[in-house]
Known about the structure:
With 310 residues, the chain is an alpha/beta fold. The protein is 35% helix and 15% strand. A hairpin with a 4-residue loop joins strand 5 (205-211) and strand 6 (216-221). The longest helix is centred in the first third of the chain and has 19 residues, at 52-70.
Amino acid sequence: MASPRRTPEAAEERSWVQRAADAVTEYAHQRKEPDEKIVCASGISPSGPIHLGNLREVMTVHLVVEELTARGLSVEHIHSWDDFDRLRKVPAGVPDSFATHIGRPISRVPDPYGEYPSYADRFMADFTTSLNRLGVRPRFVRQSEAYRRGDYVDSIRVALKKRLEIFDILAAFQTPGRHSEDVDVRREAYYPFRPYCATCDRDTTVVTSYSEAEDTIEYDCASCGHHHRMSLSDRPLDGKLVWKVDWPMRWEFERVDFEPGGVELDGTRSDSCHCSRSVGARNRPLAVRPPETRAILLDRSGIAGPAPLR
């Protein structure tokens, strides 16, 4: 069977990867100096076996990075391991006794089979091996290490100082009637930082005060009843910003230009874009996905900018 003739129009048609690289290049050059590198980011929580969605998260970024590199541009692919996330539930096939670790950071939850340093390490190792086989080698960032080193402490201080502003932004997008407490009560009690308890290592903590002058936080733990006063100057710093504040903080810290994320995160991305300036973040990465993916932040070409601030 003869091959179909290639029309001039087909020859000139640009792939999605090429069009995405065009958009990322233009967006980065509008925001950065000519000699600054373009930063592209992906990330997953290593909390379970690898699945196709994890691979999509990384490969979308990798393909664009490869195209940018082929054009001779300075570009970096950063992949975040969200291994400072809490263990949410007992994994399938694991004894119920593992429930004692719920609420603890997965970087400090033991591997249930005793083969890796932690629960997170098990899945990070599997995923890294798979990426190596595909020739995908980003710069990996373990959030458990970055937070505990104090990399983000200045941003944490900003978020705590602007906690009421952040609450107002997030509350504007919450479903009416969802909470039993009055909005003013919740607003006064809101802190966008969640420590891991110094006694039981769970995130079932409630921050009760923040002293900017003393650079300290006080919290109570609902699991073990421990009351603690922690200094933000201490290392390791055992706590993290809540997700919708954590994400834009990292955009700024890494100077990210492109991070597509998954469709399931579009609501979070929108809220995070609105929170970004409250944590001193000017960076809001371009959202680019293949055209088959439809989401509120994407037009029909699969390319769109960050959600506008309201």
